[in-house]
C-alpha cells in the first residue's frame, strides 16, 4: 500500500599474515610436497618461498604443536566485549592500544599463515592489495601478525607487497598499517585467545586442503587448496576419495577423465574453458595446479562465461612433483578433500573499543576487510545520531522473533507524544547467541505493523520494513518514518514484528524516537510542518502480465488546512522469474499525478555485482554468509528499506479534484514472465 499524506501549517515543537604459500604444500607431519629446488628465488628474491622454507624446515614441527596447544588465558572473549589494552612490537616501533589520542579509530587484526591458500591469494593478487590500498577508511588501522615461526620474514614481505602497490597507486596508507614480527604464540597478550577461541570453518576460515595418496608412497601429500569462486561453480567436493587423472592443460575434451578428477595445468586457456571441457568430458571435478613458482589464483569466470552453468567443483593447488611423477608413470593417484580447523584469521575492534567478528570473506580480496571497516564508521555515525535529543519509547528489548506471530507487544505511549513532529525507528536484529554462528542463515523480509485503533482503516498497517542478514547479528538501523505518525492514533498501540514463520529465530530490539524535525531527516522534506492525515493508496502483488491491470486512478481533494502533500511508498521486489524478477531484475515504479507529472524510481542496481556491498556506509551489514554483495530490487540483505518520498504539492489543484495512478514496469513494459512470476511488496 502506498501513502498519500498531508501536513498542515504548524510551529516546530521541541518534543520530539602470515606468509605466502612459499612452496610448502604439506601439513606438518606429512611429506613436504616441495621436494625439488625451484626458480622461486628469482621471483621472490630474498623472500623466496622455497628459500624461506629451506631456512625454516626444522620449525614446521613447532608450528604444528603451537596450533594444537592453546595459549594460556584467564578469560573468554565474546563479540561485544570491551577490548583490553595491548602493546605489540612492530617494524616501526611499538603499537599501543588504546592510542594516546583516544578511541577515535577502529582496528582490524589480521593473522597470516602460509598454510592457507586463501590468504596466499589475497596477498599475491594485485587487485586484492589495491582494494586495501584504495579503500581502507581513514579511521581504520590494521595490525598484521603471523601464526608461523617465520613471522619476521612474513611481515617484511607483507609490508613490501603493500608498499609496492601503494607506490603504484600513489596512496599514503602505511602509517595506519602495523606489522608485528612477533609470532602470535609469543605475543604475550590476549590477542591469541581471540584468534584461537573464535575458530571458524568457512570460505575464509580453516585450512582447505587436498589430500593425495598412492600405494607407492609411505605417507599422503596434503596440499593447501583454493576452491573456485563460490558464485561461479556451485558444485562441492564430497568426503569420498576420487581417482586423479592427468588431463594435460584441460584446453581440450578428454575421454580419459570420465568419472575421475581431472589434473590440469595452469595456462594456455581460461579457467572457464578448462572446467567446461572437463565437464563435457564427464569428469567429476577439476584440480588445477599452478605453474612453477607461481602463486595460487582465484579461479572465476569472466564476462559472458558466467552465463554458462557448470556443475562440477574445481580447486587450485601448487605444482606437486610427486603427483606429477606418479601420474606420468601411469601409477594410480587418488585425491580427497578436507578442511582442517585453524585459528581465526581476522577480528576487529570498533570505535567504541568493542570486539567484533569479521564475517565471511567470500573470495580472497581485502575488499571484505575494508567493508568491515566501513561498517565500523557507519556504527560510529549511527551512535552520533542516537545522541541527538529525542524521547525514546521501548517497544521490543532483545525479544525473540519467530513463528507465525513473530513478536507482539502493546505499548502505552506518552499522552503528549503528538507534540512531537518526527518519528524514527531505532531497530536492531541480533542472534540468540553472541556469535554469528547462532544466527538464522537466510535473508527474509521483516515487517513492523501497528494498530492503535481496532476500528480504524489504519489498523495493522506497515510502519517499518527490513531485510535480515545472512547469518550475521550486528544490524542496527535508524529509519525516519515521520510521515506515518498518524498511524499512532491512540496512546495505546499494539506492535507486531515478524518475518516468515519457518525462519529461525532473530532477537529484535525496537525503540520509537519522538523528537522535533530539526533532529531528523523529516526537516529536509517538510520544514515547519507536521504530519496530519494519511490516505492509503496501492499495494503490490504478483509481478506478471496482470500486475498493472488492478490499479485504477485514485481521486482526492486536498483539505483546506494542508500546505504540503507527499507520496510515501515502500517498494521491494522479490522472487525469480525467467528475467530474474523481482529480486535481481531492474524494475521501475511510477506515480502519475493528474495524468501529467510522472515520478519514477528505477531499481537500477538490481543484479549488479556490488550493488549492496557499495551501501555498507549506509547500513548494509558486511561480510554476510551468503550472496549479500549483489544489488536487489529496492532492498539489500541486512538493511532497512528506506521509504520513497515525493513532494507533489506544486503539481496539485489545491482547491479542486486530483488523481494519482501507480504502475510498475520491467524493461519499460508491463511484466510478462514466461514462468514463476516474482512479486512486489508495496505499501503506499
Kindly describe this structure.
- The chain has three domains: 3-10 and 389-683, Sandwich (Jelly Rolls); 40-202 and 345-372, 3-Layer(aba) Sandwich (Glutaredoxin), CATH 3.40.30.10; 207-340, Glucose Oxidase, domain 1, CATH 3.50.30.
- It contains eleven helices and 34 strands.
- The protein has an eight-stranded mixed beta sheet, with helices on both faces. Strands 1, 25, 26, 28, 32 and 34 form a six-stranded antiparallel beta sheet that branches. Strands 6-5-4-15-16 form a five-stranded mixed beta sheet.
- Strand 7 and strand 8 form a beta hairpin.
- Helix 5 packs across helix 6 (151-169) and helix 5 (126-135) runs parallel beside helix 10 (367-386).
- The longest helix has 20 residues, at 367-386.
Largest sheet: 8 strands, mixed
* Tally of contiguous helical segments: 11
Number of strands: 34
CATH topology of the largest domain: Jelly Rolls
**What's the number of domains?**
3
Q: Give the C-alpha Rg.
A: 29 Å
CATH architecture of the largest domain: Sandwich
Protein name: Si:dkey-256h2.1
GO molecular function, one term: oxidoreductase activity, acting on paired donors, with incorporation or reduction of molecular oxygen, reduced ascorbate as one donor, and incorporation of one atom of oxygen
Pfam families: N-glycanase_C, N-glycanase_N, PA
InterPro entries: Cu2_ascorb_mOase-like_C, N-glycanase, PA_dom_sf, PA_domain, PHM/PNGase_F_dom_sf, PngaseF_C, PngaseF_N
Amino acid at each position: 500500500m502506498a501513502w498519500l499524506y498531508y501536513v498542515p501549517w504548524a510551529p516546530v515543537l521541541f518534543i520530539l599474515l602470515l606468509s605466502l604459500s612459499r612452496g610448502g604444500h604439506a601439513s606438518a607431519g606429512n611429506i613436504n610436497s616441495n621436494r625439488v629446488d625451484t626458480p622461486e628465488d628469482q621471483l621472490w628474491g630474498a623472500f623466496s618461498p622455497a628459500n624461506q622454507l629451506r631456512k625454516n624446515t626444522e620449525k614446521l614441527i613447532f608450528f604444528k604443536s603451537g596450533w594444537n596447544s592453546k595459549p594460556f588465558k584467564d578469560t573468554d572473549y565474546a563479540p561485544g566485549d570491551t577490548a583490553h589494552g595491548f602493546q605489540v612490537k612492530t617494524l616501526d616501533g611499538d603499537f599501543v592500544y588504546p592510542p594516546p589520542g583516544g578511541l577515535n579509530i577502529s582496528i582490524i587484526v589480521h593473522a597470516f599463515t602460509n598454510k592457507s591458500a586463501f590468504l596466499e591469494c589475497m596477498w599475491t593478487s594485485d587487485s586484492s592489495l589495491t582494494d586495501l590500498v584504495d579503500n581502507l577508511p581513514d579511521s581504520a588501522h590494521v595490525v598484521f601478525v603471523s601464526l608461523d615461526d617465520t613471522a619476521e620474514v612474513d611481515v617484511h614481505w607483507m609490508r613490501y607487497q603493500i608498499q609496492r602497490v601503494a607506490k603504484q597507486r600513489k596512496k599514503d596508507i602505511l602509517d595506519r598499517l602495523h606489522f608485528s614480527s612477533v609470532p602470535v604464540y609469543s605475543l604475550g597478550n590476549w590477542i591469541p585467545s581471540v584468534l584461537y577461541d573464535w575458530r571458524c570453518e568457512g570460505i575464509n576460515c580453516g585450512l582447505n586442503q587436498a589430500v593425495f595418496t598412492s600405494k607407492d608412497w609411505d605417507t599422503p601429500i596434503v596440499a593447501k587448496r583454493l576452491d573456485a569462486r563460490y558464485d561461479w561453480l556451485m558444485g562441492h567436493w564430497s568426503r569420498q576419495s576420487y581417482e586423479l587423472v592427468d588431463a594435460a592443460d584441460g584446453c581440450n575434451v578428454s575421454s580419459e577423465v570420465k568419472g575421475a578428477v581431472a589434473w590440469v595445468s595452469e595456462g594456455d586457456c581460461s579457467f572457464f574453458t578448462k572446467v567446461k571441457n572437463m565437464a563435457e568430458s564427464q569428469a567429476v571435478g577439476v584440480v588445477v595446479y599452478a605453474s612453477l613458482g607461481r602463486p595460487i589464483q582465484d579461479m572465476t569466470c569472466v564476462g559472458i562465461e558466467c552465463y554458462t552453468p557448470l556443475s562440477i567443483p574445481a580447486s587450485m593447488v601448487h605444482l606437486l612433483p610427486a603427483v606429477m611423477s606418479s601420474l606420468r608413470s601411469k601409477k594410480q593417484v587418488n585425491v580427497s578433500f578436507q578442511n582442517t580447523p585453524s585459528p581465526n584469521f581476522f577480528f576487529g575492534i570498533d570505535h567504541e573499543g568493542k570486539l567484533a567478528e569479521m564475517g565471511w570473506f567470500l573470495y580472497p580480496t581485502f575488499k571484505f576487510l575494508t567493508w568491515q571497516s566501513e561498517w565500523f564508521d557507519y556504527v560510529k555515525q549511527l551512535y552520533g545520531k542516537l545522541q541527538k535529543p529525542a524521547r525514546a519509547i521501548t517497544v521490543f528489548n532483545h525479544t525473540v522473533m519467530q513463528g507465525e506471530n513473530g513478536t507482539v507487544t502493546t505499548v502505552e505511549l506518552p499522552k503528549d507524544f503528538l507534540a512531537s513532529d518526527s518519528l524514527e525507528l531505532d531497530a536492531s536484529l541480533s542472534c540468540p547467541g553472541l556469535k554469528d554462528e547462532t544466527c538464522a542463515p537466510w535473508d527474509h523480509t521483516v515487517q513492523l505493523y501497528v494498530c492503535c485503533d481496532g476500528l480504524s482503516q489504519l489498523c495493522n498497517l506497515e510502519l517499518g520494513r527490513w531485510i535480515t542478514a545472512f547469518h550475521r547479528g550486528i544490524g542496527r538501523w535508524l529509519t525516519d518514518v515521520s510521515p506515518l505518525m498518524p498511524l499512532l492514533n491512540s496512546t495505546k498501540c499494539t506492535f507486531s514484528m515478524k518475518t516468515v514463520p519457518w525462519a529461525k529465530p532473530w532477537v529484535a530490539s525496537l525503540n520509537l524516537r519522538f523528537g522535533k524535525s530539526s533532529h531528523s531527516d523529516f526537516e529536509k522534506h517538510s520544514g515547519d510542518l507536521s504530519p496530519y492525515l494519511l490516505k492509503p493508496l496501492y499495494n503490490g502483488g504478483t509481478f506478471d502480465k496482470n500486475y498493472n491491470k488492478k490499479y485504477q486512478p485514485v481521486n482526492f481533494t486536498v483539505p483546506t488546512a494542508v500546505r504540503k502533500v507527499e507520496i510515501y511508498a515502500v517498494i521491494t521486489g522479490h522472487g525469480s522469474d525467467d528475467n530474474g524478477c523481482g529480486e535481481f531484475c531492474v524494475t521501475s515504479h511510477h506515480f502519475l499525478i493528474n495524468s501529467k507529472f510522472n515520478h519514477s524510481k528505477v531499481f537500477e542496481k538490481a543484479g549488479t555485482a556490488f550493488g549492496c556491498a557499495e551501501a555498507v556506509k549506509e547500513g548494509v551489514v558486511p561480510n554476510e554468509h551468503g550472496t549479500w554483495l549483489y544489488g536487489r530490487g529496492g532492498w539489500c540483505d541486512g538493511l532497512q528499506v528506506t521509504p520513497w518520498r515525493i513532494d507533489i504539492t506544486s503539481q496539485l489543484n489545491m482547491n479542486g479534484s486530483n488523481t494519482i495512478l501507480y504502475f510498475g514496469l520491467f524493461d519499460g513494459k508491463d511484466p510478462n514472465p514466461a514462468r514463476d512470476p516474482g512479486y512486489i511488496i508495496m505499501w503506499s
